[in-house]
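Model it.
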Amino acid sequence: MSFCNRIWTEAAPLLDAIHAHPFNRELAEGSLDRAAFRHYMIQDSLYLQGFARALSLGAAKAPGAAEIEDFARAAQVAIVVERALHADYLGQFGIDPAEAAASDHSPACQAYVDFLLTRAALGSFGELAAAILPCFWVYHEVGALIATRSRPDNFYQAWINTYTDPEFAAAVARMQAHVDKAATGAGDDERARMGKAFLRSTQYEFMFWDSAWRQVTWPVG
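Modeled.
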């Protein structure tokens, strides 16, 4: 069994919880409270800035040309492609993108970004690659399942289409290959840290959706 398949199996209970979360179930039905999705989109636009920085640092740490190219390209996609989708949705909600950019990170968003940047600064390339992988792999799996459940004329179809696009699936496969390659060349201790980083980021993915569902903000000012 490959390293990626092993850590995916270990994360199965958490992945089941993500699929079952009301945010994702109602997104598929098109019945999700638009205020919750508004919260999600603003936070995701903030998250993507930190995610792009972590990817860029990954490119700097990368051991070879293929990794440099894929991490640099992924950083560009995070900024250009996904934020273009966000701009469209922010417009539908009547939110000025500048206002969204000035919004504060939610506790879950801040913790997730800080975790990725810490792995980028202090961890190995393998640890960072494993920490970044859930944002690709989990989103693809969630989007694929939602696509099978999505109702006609779903208000959220553009979001669903983004994560079921064949190019996104190819990017997921490339990131999996980089993680497996890094794990093959790593010792037992580093592989353990990689597995822990993957699980922690998957936990943050759950927390991100749950935070949007509950529209969590910082307490007391």
